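seq:
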Amino acid sequence: MYLKRAKMKIKTKLSLLFTFTIALFLIGLNLFIYSISKSFASSDFFYRLRMRTYAAANVYLEEDEVSNKVFQGFQKVLLEKLPGETIMLYDSINQPAFIRDSVPTAFPVTVIEKTRREKTYKSKISGTYTYGIYYPDNQGNFVILASAADKIGDAKLTQLGNGLLISFFFSIFILFFIGRFFTMRMLKPVNDIINHVNSITDSNLNLRLSEGNGKDELAELAITFNNMLERLQKAFELQQNFVASASHELRTPLTSIIGNIEVLLSRHRNADEYKIVLQTVLEEAERLHKLSDGLLNIAQASSDINNIKMEYIRIDELLEESKNAVQNQMSESKMDLYFENMPVNSDDLLIKGNKNLLIIAFENLLENANKFSENKNIKIDLANSPESICVAITDTGIGIPEKDLNNIFQTFYRSENARSYSGSGVGLSLCHKIFQLHNGDLSVKSELGIGTVVTVVLKKG
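struct:
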């Protein structure tokens, strides 16, 4: 049995991250406070020992006559002030001075010699502080050493450390819940967004998120979601319209084919009748074939550009090839190709694209121009500029009503005045998608009863 890995929510992660960050800061701050206090206590205690060495020098060495009794009395007074204090004066042969009785040497000879050599000495070993000075005098050259344990200072440092440690854990505990409280408040709009998004389905894509003040990151997130929902709603509506229109367009030729075959099979007929019906069936089948090809081409033009083979193509040759192909199909068509600002170097006419798709697009545009102008003269202008190539196809046909111009790139959409002509409303939609795939621009200007100008702008490279 596998245990499911627990998922940590963002609010818990943020609370822990906030607490961890503050904990690191407090640890650094507490260590700084403790080290500063310890350094100050050590410096202060060394200073006190230093004052004792100079006090001892003033008492014993500035007076010519000092008895052992006076020395022991002075030492007794100092020992009452500092725990474990020892003050010793050594002469030039490292022997204790001003003590008549035999006493053991309180400090190692190496310490005495080091003090004499370096003039001062201080050390801390196992909690015992030692400070020494070299003191030349008319009675001789002396070394004065004082040592003691700073028990009071150590006790204060221990109390300070315990206090800092307790306050640290208490602060971390409080800060975690404070961080969690503010994190929950900060993330509440995110939870609202999640709940709202979860309530949106394909049946209510018109719902939108509240954008709040429209200034912070959460508002930007809501705006982004709303823009995505807007695109999804449009795509869903287009898909529904596409399916409905495709079903209708496919049903018409299929119904005609089925109806004609049923009539044909209802009784025996002569050869001419069979020929007439079969001709009708063939026309509807060709219409169905052309429609299915159009839909497949639209699907290909709507795919990712990375999945389509791209190559460099000379636009003038491609236009000539498309023009010839249309003239072979529509023998009565009259089309003239004009060149403007043609470059000296033919490489300047190169564009990067998929040749088959571009031929399909230009053939569709030329077929439409011939069909809706009833084979009147068609003008094809090719203009060159340093950044792009522009192709304008001008006809003198029926034109497009102004109210329909915004819808002509929708699949299966046909203007009212074009419904008497053969077609399925796939051509312009297909062309638009192909030129979009090539980072091109397709625009249409038209006047009813005068004609239409279709302009294609393709960027070089």
